[in-house]
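Retro notes
What went well: the complex prediction finally ran end to end.
Inputs used:
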Amino acid sequence: MPVALAVHGLAKRYGSVEALKGVDLVVDEGELVGLLGPNGAGKSTLVKIAVGLVRPSSGGAEVAGARAGSRAARASLGYLAELFRFPGWYTADEVLVLHQRLSGSRGGAAERRRLLELVALEDAAGRRVEGMSKGMQQRLGVAQALVGEPRILLLDEPTSALDPVGRRTVRLLLEELRGRGVSVLLNSHLLSEIELVCDRVAILLGGELVAAGTPAELSRPRGIELETDEGVRRIAGAVRADAPRIVAEAVAAGRQVYGVRVLTSTLEDTYLEAVGGETD
Amino acid sequence: MSSFAAIVEYGFREAVRRKVFAVVVLLTAVFLVLFWLANHFVFDQLGNITPPRDINVDTRTFAGAFLTGLAMFATLFLGVVLAVFLTIGVVSGDAERGLLQPLVVRPVGRSTLLLSRFAGAAGVCVAYVLTVYVAAMVITGLTGHWWPDRIMWPGLELAGGVVIVIALSLLGSIVLSSTANGIAVFMLFGGGLVAGLLASIGHALNSHAIKHASTIAAWALPFEGLYQDALRMITASTSGLTGFLLQLGPFGGAYVHGWTIRIWALAYLVAVGAVALFAFRRKNL
């Protein structure tokens, strides 16, 4: 079975601006990959090329083995744009009916009910979009992306308008989807969220892929923290294997040891290192 | 087919939900009431109009055709207003608002999407134009006992003219922002009207250059050519001095006519549609 998303040497130029400079990225079946990078890094452009909204200048992308933008590719994916809107006069149920018709889904009312339950909107099926909060619309957007049981889901900032409860709902949903074998490419600014749910992380900067790997692979050892009766001491350069020796030496020296902690960099540290401290 | 129908229905619901639709319906109702009043007073006073003895003019035909011609202009104008406001933002406008992207990524095909939006807008506008045209014709017919020489052709040609404006507006919506597109399409429509007026001036002055310029403009903007042909059709069987005066009348010219302009209008529509489809397929959203 082909990988869910394969991007090779992808480049995109808008006039004099190079949004992407030859990016390679693969999302395997059932894998949840987080895409990170500051604004203007090329994340949304990459996602838009994958879903067929933007034409690449060179290189290419394949979705489930089909050329990105082709009918077969679009039939395999679900997409939530960063900035999207549904017609205000449609109800939540009608939005899903429209997308069922467009995607050729035969799920009917049962699929719509299940999707609305997944995003905690089961009580809002008959409510018009114009009467929904931004967060509810965002969750409806996620439900819309899931119409037709896509093999891969491309989500561009899916939690940007959600409160903590809404974010948790989406996070649990992503974990459930992974359990069902659905691949996800998650473009988000929320590092903690990506760290919590993603199998792998790719960091873009200036249109180039500057780091990629699992959160564990991307983390760096940052020493060991030892808590004794003298207080907390940080031993820089020490790694996990050094912990027993450090504790033994402290005990031998007559210290009371209350705790020991192996320090590793967070995804935020890795991200800031990768982008050179560049912020939005 | 289901996705085509889904987008047509989507466009139709959007059309009738818009405030501009309600405004056009209200304006139309006001227009038809005023038009009935005009017919009532004109035909009521018809007996008092006495042309010179040596001039043989059928006053009823002249008044009926005059009023129907004015109604046709109003129908075309209102139809174009409706068409433009329903389509100026179908691509760029909807993309800016984020309405288009969720639809385009579905396995529908951009061509199907654009054609179905065209079909939805055309369905609304054609129904509107034919309704207003028939209503105005019936008002004149019942009030003044005068009916056009050709009943349906003029209405169909007016509707055809509006359909061409829809195609131009959809093409414009791919390359221009909503505001710029609205201005551009109304300027094109105004250009067509000027061409008709130029034709009348050219014929009155017997200026070959002005007539030639107006003819070129009417062919370049075939909604104007169809409008001129529609005007000609309402008095197609009227001859003599009445027919001559009607040709010079307030219609803004009825000099481009016949099957050639109809076939050209169809070819023009297909060409505009083909360019629009090509441009939409290549557009980055």
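What we learned: The mean pLDDT of chain A is 89.
What to try next: split runs per interface for comparison.
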